[in-house]
Amino acid sequence: MAGRFATRTFFAAAAFVEAIKAALACCVVSLVTLTFSSYARQRPLRCIIVFRGINSISMDAKGRMALPARYRETVMVASAGRLVVTIDMRESCLLVYPLSEWEVVQAKLEGLSNMNAQARLLQRLLIGHATDLELDSAGRLLLPTMLREYASLQKKLVLVGQGNKIEVWSADHWQQRLDDWLQEGVAAMNSNAEFFQDLSL
């Protein structure tokens, strides 16, 4: 009789210990989930954006251009086909960002002091010209007339991947600037030969 009682007591104690372990495991999982969710809300995970390479494309009479397939796939993953286009203040070309990347850029611009004249100019021109776009079912973007005129875009275009964004150039203007840059590059390397002597590409 005493033996049976001791056995029942042992199994009851073991079951109690297992229940405690299960409860603790549940609490740990809940705590980790809550912590991760809170972190994710504060620091949303961002897809790594990489645009690179040069592509020659055509723009139709309505101002629509089709993104190359590899760019289009990146945009769909990063921002569900939503983009923002604005001007480049240093060159006569346009800058196209996935929406998620543009939001980062705009936050940085808005963080600049309005009391600084140069900062205000950046905000006025870059945010002021920023236009929301969305890929259509054929993977095309409709570029606004005002922005097409700024960059002197005609039928033949050149797209240049620049990491988190795409530059859109008139093909003629791109070739002209490319020739200038190559000449400047050769001159710079010739005048600073010692700086480049250990460079291996």
Question: What would you note in describing this structure?
Answer:
A hairpin with a 6-residue loop joins β3 and β4. The longest helix is centred in the first third of the chain and has 41 residues. Helices cover 54% and strands 18% of the residues. The radius of gyration is 29 Å and the shape is globular. The strands form 2 sheets. A 6-stranded antiparallel β-sheet has the order 1-7-8-4-3-5. The protein has a two-stranded antiparallel sheet with strand order 2-6. It contains 7 helices and 8 strands. With 201 residues, the protein is α+β, with helices and mostly antiparallel strands. It has 2 domains: 45 residues; 137 residues, Chemotaxis protein chec (3-Layer(aba) Sandwich).
Produce a short descriptive summary.
By secondary structure, this protein is of the alpha+beta class. The protein has two domains: 1-45; 54-190, Transcriptional regulator MraZ domain (Chemotaxis protein chec, 3-Layer(aba) Sandwich), CATH 3.40.1550. Helix content is 54%, strand content 18%.
